[in-house]
Amino acid sequence: MKTVLLLFWEFFKVGLFSVGGGLATLPFLYDIAARRPWFTNADILDMIAISESTPGPLGINMATYVGYKTLGAAGGLVSVAGIITPAIVVIVIVSKILKRFRESEAVQRIFYGLRPASTGLIAAAGLGVAKVTLLRVDAFRQTGSILQLFNWKLIVLAVVLYFAMKKWDKHPILFIAAAAAAGIVLKL
Fold this sequence. Notes:
mainly alpha; about 0% strand
């Protein structure tokens, strides 16, 4: 029962403070991974891959993943309930307040102030994923060679995929499938 309440509480906090969408949840997930035995930092990369390749919001998918991994289907439901509860409460409150204060300069400033916070959270999450994916810190520590720091195959794949997405306006699933195929062929 204690783990059920902890799952709900941890994801309630994620839902309450991760302004900016699914990627903004990543710093909170890294924090949970450091404090709870439910998953590791490496598991977060798996969560991102699975969550990005399945339908639904990223944060909800990651909450489901953690909850299911921790306590099965019930844990998935508890984690999702935790992450969505703050949004429901905030939306109800904000909708009531905004009707009365829509033109308020203070309300406008609050929303403009939240934008850089969201951007910062998303940037931190992106850099964290890039660090874990594209760098081999352990290999660098062992060898001291700067060339060993970089996971060159994954860097090249990321750059190729980036430019391919910019050049060809195709559905993202095609690029995800291409990356998965490259992982098999190149034994990444």
